[in-house]
Amino acid sequence: MSTFGDDLIQSLGEAVAHAKGEGPAVVHAPLEPKAVRMRAKLTQKQMAPIMGMSLSGYRKWEQGQRRLSGPAAALLQMLEKEPEAVRRALLSA
Predict the structure, then answer these.
(1) Which residues neighbour 43 within 8 Å (Cβ) at sequence distance 6 or greater?
(2) d(Cα 7, Cα 13) in Å, to the nearest integer?
(3) Which pLDDT tens digit goes with each residue over 5-23?
(4) Residues 6+ apart with CB under 8 A from 73
(5) How many Cα atoms sit within 13 Å of 70 on the Cβ side?
(6) Residue 47 and residue 37 in contact, taking contact as beta carbons nearer than 8 Å
(7) Domains of the chain (ranges plus CATH)?
(8) Maximum CA pair distance of the chain?
(9) What is the 3-state secondary structure (H, E, C) of the chain?
(10) Which one in 19, 46, 78, 81 has a CA-CA gap of 20 to 30 Å to 72?
(11) What separation, in Å, do the N-terminal and C-terminal C-alpha atoms of the chain show?
(12) Distance (Å, rounded) from C-alpha 83 to C-alpha 40?
């Protein structure tokens, strides 16, 4: 079987195990974008480019009209723990 086929079979097995509550799973506590932004002392206008999106798109996150993707949630976690490092990395260009 091809590598893709092997990977597909393995991933389906992992999905079934996860659905049964078996096997390792990484679960991150949900973060509220507004709460993270407020703790970082940023405005919505400042936060939107950090998250790589438009101001209106960011506002939709805070209003619950859009869901956070995995990478966005990871960036929020980084901003929660190291706001200055994130600012330096993303806003110094």
Answers:
(1) 37
(2) 10
(3) 788 888 788 878 877 878 7
(4) 28, 30, 31
(5) 2
(6) yes
(7) 33-91 (1.10.260.40)
(8) 53
(9) CCHHHHHHHHHHHHHHHHHCCCCCCCCCCCCCHHHHHHHCCCCHHHHHHHCCCCHHHHHHHHCCCCCCCHHHHHHHHHHHHCHHHHHHHHHCC
(10) 19
(11) 46
(12) 6
Closest CA to 53 of 78, 33, 38: 33
pLDDT in tens, 24-44: 766 667 789 999 999 999 999
Tokens of residue 43, six digits: 């405005």
Residue found by looking up tokens 């092997």 in the block: 6
Query: Is-above-0.70 flag for pTM?
Result: no
CA–CA separation, 49 and 61 (whole Å): 14
